[in-house]
Amino acid sequence: MKLLSFLFTSSIGRKLIMALTGLFLCLFLVVHLIGNLQLFKADGGYAFNHYAWFMTSNPLIKTVSWGLYAMIILHAVKGIYLAMNNRKARQARYEVSAGSANSSWSSRNMAILGSIIFIFIGIHMGDFWREYKFGDEITWRSYTQDYNTQAVTWTEYTPVEGQKIYAKDIEGGHMLVAKDLYSEVYDAFRQPWIVWIYVLSMLALAFHLLHGFQSAFQTLGINHPSYSPIIQFIGRAFAILVPLGFAAIPLYVLFQ
Amino acid sequence: MSQKLDSKIPAGNLSDKWTQYRSSVSLVNPANKRNLEVIVVGTGLAGASAAATLAEMGYKVKAFCFQDSPRRAHSIAAQGGINAAKNYQNDGDSVYRLFYDTIKGGDYRAREANVHRLAEVSTNIIDQCVAQGVPFAREYGGTLSNRSFGGTQVQRTFYAAGQTGQQLLLGAYSALERQVGVGNVKMYTRHEMIEVVTIDGKARGIIARDLVSGKLERHFGHAVLLCTGGYGNVFYLSTNAMGSNVTAAWKAHKAGAYFANPCFTQIHPTCIPVSGHYQSKLTLMSESLRNDGRIWVPKAQGDKRHPNDIPEEERDYYLERRYPAFGNLVPRDVASRAAKERCDAGYGVGSSGMAVYLDFRSNMMNKYGRAEATKAGIENPDEATLVRLGKEVVKEKYGNLFDMYKQITDEDPYEVPMRIYPAVHYTMGGLWVDYELQTTVPGLYALGEANFSDHGANRLGASALMQGLADGYFVIPYTVGSYLSKEIHTKAIDTQHEAFEAAEKRASERIEKLMGIQGKRSVESYHRELGLIMWDKCGMARSEAGLKEAIEQIRALREDFYKNVRIPGKVNEFNPELDKAGRVADFLELGELMCVDALNRNESCGGHFREEFQTEEGEALRDDDKFAYVAAWENNGDSWTLHKEELNYENIKIQQRSYK
Amino acid sequence: MSENMNINLKVWRQPSDQNTGSFETYKVQASPDMSFLEMMDVLNEQIIEEGGEPVAFDHDCREGICGMCSMVINGRPHGPKQGVTTCQLHMRSFSDGDTVVVEPWRASAFPVIKDLSVDRGAFDRIIAAGGYVSVNTGNAVDANSVLIPKDTADKAFEAATCIGCGACVSACKNASAMLFVGAKVTQLSLLPQGQAERESRVVAMVNQMDAEGFGACTNTGACAAECPKEIPLSVIATLNREYTSAKLKGR
């Protein structure tokens, strides 16, 4: 551990933490987005609810989730610490600042953007994750999928006390009894103000990623005349496509 | 010849002197070194290298610089390169040839033994700098690259683009900081030395002023090394840094050190011309440009056509015409005078008529463009192609200089020839030192440009860096031991000693006097006026009448200065105007001595050109019978006494210098 | 070319680190061919004539190499032009009637000495911590005994052209010194002569950099964009890499 203590004691170490946790979170975004795309399916939430159940019950995923929460906290806490420390490095501010002449807007506002995203994560998890795990307002559905036609049918389901989500194979198909997070999401996204919070937060995420993605590679010491343009291109594409994918869902639901 | 001037040149063959000296000089054992303190004033190439090396050897060193960091010393601005007799180019170079070129380039007014030693250690310097991580220019095979410089016919100049001084200084600076880091050197930045403290005739310390707080400090040292550079700023406009000054050397002079050959000033031929009265300094365009630039003026007087419109046959490449053997690469004094001659005769160009062209077009096209075209397999390239291809090569060699020129003049030198004119650049004169670099005050040494020793009446290009580092890395570490080995019983002297007391009192009284004047004129205006007098009458051409007039003018100006100067602010605070006032006060005294020296030297040699002494062709006319000596001036308060050190040439036959 | 221009200056005045500062406004007549510092000279002569205290500012070589001049001009270190120091900035970069705001480098690690002068001793201390090759005078082998490919030498030189002015720190919103440190680390890690101390050097320099109170790098790129010698941002990546690998090896 002594070997790694520099991650917490030196400026470059702290930046490395930001870079590594940041890149991990980027990876998570991809997984999360792929899952969310299930929301576009007109299957009454069969695929999505199945996915939501899998994500919250699989022991491996659960372990990774705790890691993820730790990463988010670490990224946020270290980020705030860095921002505060960096502010201390210049106590007297400039009268005129011409940041736009020498750096991108997003690079100068990472802490603000990050804070917006952090608050958003709180709202988002309160809306769905907390509700899904601990709340009792989510309704249940029972699905059956026909193996031959792949068609899914569902009915509302009234859970009993201590009801567990379950899935089982039945004759000629598959059956799932699960919390209907899908409808919960759709209900939420039919309210314009929630949609705008989501869309604006994704905008913040886009700008955060626009700088953060390629910055992480620079912090990791990767800067090469041939490879860096590729990283920058991927970073830009990532920063646009991933938040766009996320934002498309509430917009789709709202204007459906 | 005065009794006092013992140059201590070792006996023996010229080429054995230094080796024998090193083998027989007294040493100080490591335990004693720790108790011996050395003060180094100035942290340019000479000072930083000396401080670092002495600290490595075990001495306790205190280093002082007036800038905010030792890395800012003006050595940093040297552009072109550093000479060394490595003969890597296999073009016939040798220690002797470098020695010979330097003596000849100096117009036979330098001391043979010193110059030979300089040539000997020149090769060590390159090795040392490379080992420090100085990124010299290299060939594709990984070996070091060389270029030519004025006054030589071999390629022995090592360089790092147009920033050689910077790279060498950063090397010496890093060595110095390394010693600061381990506590062997105590570094005092933003400190100016304003008094030498002598006890029983020996230098024992200095009074320094902390330029931030304004407080005077006393520092003891068993020996004091002055590495404070030259005094070119006496001309106000020069290529020196704004802060470059003579103060430390002048205080040493007043404390008994003789000042040698003060009138030997180098006027560099290729500088950007003056553009307005507000101008604060002149910018050099490296001599290396003369490798590829051809100097010319129109053949017709007052020809105001655009230079690109003047056809080849109407251009006078006057250096190539007058000096076919060396052409554009004649030494600096020769090139400068030739430019002045053309301009004075009415052939000058530019709005002021005080400039000549430095033109790269023909070499860009014919030398580099054609070679590149051949490489690229282009047959019968047209002019535009040649220019385009050649431009790339020129850009790689001199890009930063061309950019700088454009920045200052707003003209693109790739398209239009540069306009250049000579400007004060370096001073060969300085504190008189013996072979050991010791001044006439025991324990007080002068290194680098601050001393007079190696360049005679004219310095060759790329030799200043060589001398600064030679003195600091390879000479003083031996020679100071000769003195310090006798000082091992001297305990550090308490700075409460009456000599320190008295020196501090002198310094503070001087400052109080300056602050008390509260007149009307700014320090700057005096400096500018002094500079004009010096440039007009003690510059590129000097005459008896002019010099006499200048002496009167300087005296009057000095008197006015002490009546009318206005220094704002207080003593005990950061007060750059006060710092400047102290320096200008010293220049006002030095300027007079320079004129006195120039007046005394009834001959023309190197950078010193007396109009009365020239050949029919306008070349400098030396008088070896009467003036083959170093003029060392002793300060008597209001006047000076001349002491002569005869120069004996045992290995080189003195002859008329010819670059034809 | 020599027509006059009227410039309104708003200059930061601060008696010392212990006092607070404020802006003073001045009017100056300048010529387009003047350098910015020559315009400041004119201002100071004017102030002295009026019996005031001239503006203290650092400057020395006035040819863009010593690194002493240090002014933030309209929010940009060394002013609006790229790749030049304040002393090489000419008034032709401004227009008649412009208002120009002049401030010192602002960073906690660079305390103000007076007006526009700041103390950059922190840079010296970083170099003293490790920015060198430990080779005592006299220890060197023949210069050509170690061959260095031209490419490597050129890259090392590019990094070595840093003039230590501190524009990088002043431009960085975090007042980070990574470009300065990165330049030296890059130079010496590229060269064979720098290998022996490669790891200890980078660790010592970064430790000192942190101790001086510079901020951490957030890769905004402002430093490289404002660097008068155009030191590239890649030196920071090199620094990160060198530091991390030295640390992982237990340095």
Count the helices of chain A. How many? 9
Largest sheet of chain A: 4 strands, antiparallel
H/E series of chain A? HHHHHHEEEEHHH
- Estimate the helix proportion of chain A, in percent: 55-70%
Number of domains of chain C: 2
> N-to-C terminal Cα separation of chain C, in Å?
59 Å
Superfamily at the CATH H level of the largest domain in chain C? Alpha-helical ferredoxin
CATH class (first level) name of the largest domain in chain C: Mainly Alpha
Number of domains of chain A: 1
CATH topology of the largest domain in chain C: Fumarate Reductase Iron-sulfur Protein, Chain B, domain 2
Task: Present the secondary structure layout.
The complex is a heterotrimer of chains A (256), B (660) and C (251).
Chain A: H1 6-9, H2 11-36, H3 46-57, H4 59-88, H5 105-108, H6 110-134, E1 140-146, E2 152-157, E3 166-170, E4 173-179, H7 181-189, H8 192-219, H9 228-254
Antiparallel strand pairs in A: 1-2, 1-4, 3-4
Helix pairs in contact in A: 2-4, 2-8, 2-9, 4-6, 6-8, 8-9
Chain B: H1 14-24, H2 30-33, E1 37-41, H3 45-57, E2 60-64, E3 82-83, H4 95-105, H5 112-132, E4 146-147, E5 157-158, H6 164-181, E6 185-188, E7 191-199, E8 202-210, E9 216-220, E10 223-226, H7 247-254, E11 259-260, E12 265-271, E13 294-298, E14 315-316, H8 318-322, H9 332-344, E15 356-359, H10 361-376, H11 383-409, E16 418-427, E17 430-431, E18 444-446, H12 464-484, H13 498-517, H14 523-537, H15 544-564, H16 576-600, H17 624-627, E19 629-635, E20 640-646
Chain C: E1 5-13, E2 22-30, H1 36-49, E3 72-73, E4 76-77, E5 99-103, E6 112-114, E7 117-118, H2 121-130, H3 150-160, H4 167-171, H5 178-190, H6 198-211, H7 222-226, H8 234-248
Parallel strand pairs in C: 1-5
Antiparallel strand pairs in C: 1-2, 3-4, 3-5, 6-7
Helix pairs in contact in C: 2-6, 3-5, 5-6, 5-8, 6-8
Protein described:
- The complex is a heterotrimer of chains A (256), B (660) and C (251).
- In chain A, 31% of the residues are buried.
- In chain A, strands 2-1-4-3 form a four-stranded antiparallel β-sheet, with helices on one face.
- In chain A, helix 6 packs across helix 8 (192-219).
- Helix content of chain A is 64%, strand content 10%.
- Chain A has 256 residues and is an alpha+beta fold.
- Chain A has one domain.
- The N and C termini of chain A lie far apart (53 Å).
- With 660 residues, chain B is of the alpha+beta class.
- Among the domains of chain B are: 268-424, Succinate dehydrogenase/fumarate reductase flavoprotein, catalytic domain (Flavocytochrome C3, Chain A, domain 1, Alpha-Beta Complex); 497-629, Methane Monooxygenase Hydroxylase, Chain G, domain 1 (Up-down Bundle), CATH 1.20.58.100.
- Chain B is built from 17 helices and 20 strands.
- In chain B, the strands form five sheets. A five-stranded parallel β-sheet of chain B has the order 6-2-1-10-18, sandwiched between helices. Chain B has a five-stranded antiparallel β-sheet with strand order 12-16-15-13-14.
- In chain B, helix 3 (45-57) links the parallel strand 1 and strand 2 (60-64).
- The radius of gyration of chain B is 24 Å and the shape is globular.
- Chain C is built from eight helices and seven strands.
- In chain C, the strands form two sheets. Chain C has a five-stranded mixed β-sheet with strand order 2-1-5-3-4.
- With 251 residues, chain C is an alpha+beta fold.
- In chain C, strand 3 (72-73) and strand 4 form a beta hairpin.
